[in-house]
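ARCHIVE CARD
Drawer: 12
Card no.: 0347
Subject: one protein chain, sequence and derived structure
Cross-reference: see card 0346
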Amino acid sequence: MKVLFNFSLLLILLAVVQVMAGEQARLNESAPDFTLKDNKGETYTLSDLKGKYVVLEWVNFGCPFVRKHYDSGNMQKLQKTYTEKGAVWLSICSSADGKQGYFDGDELDEKIAEEGVNATAYLIDEDGTVGKMYGARTTPHMYIIDPEGKLIYVGGIDDRASTKISDIDGASNYVSAALDAAMAGKPVTVQTSKPYGCSVKYK
């Protein structure tokens, strides 16, 4: 009886693990669907964006690595370049209430305007559900999803893991390289890289 109970428990645990694993983002597989609200209260659902390239950018305006790319205008330039080419760029903040990078209400609206954000939307993931689903570890942490809904790039924004603005020039930007290749119908040469930045401030 005890053996039967243990075996049943094992099956239940395996099922739970499989469900959890199925919710995790995997390269070259369908990106997990999610729904989040932006700072204006509008709802964005990933599956509604099928047919477009989608960039996910984990953001925390208090992080010096993020500051590097915003103070230089690099991130805003990338956002503008690829949204003008038809991509959807979603900046996602998974900072919990009270932690670095968390803003809400008028303060958030003012911060987005101050930073000159050119993303399609700034999405709020206060409980960290989507960040954990995608395995977002740093800010920034970048993801690219193709029009079929498959994840084609996961990793850092470039190959210069520093907070120095001067390091942007001459860096290999993995995000632009992946988008340019994919949009031209070519294979993405670098699909993964080590993300760098501050840890995501989950609750």
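Annotation on reverse: Residues 25-199 form a domain with the Glutaredoxin fold (CATH 3.40.30.10). The mean pLDDT is 91.
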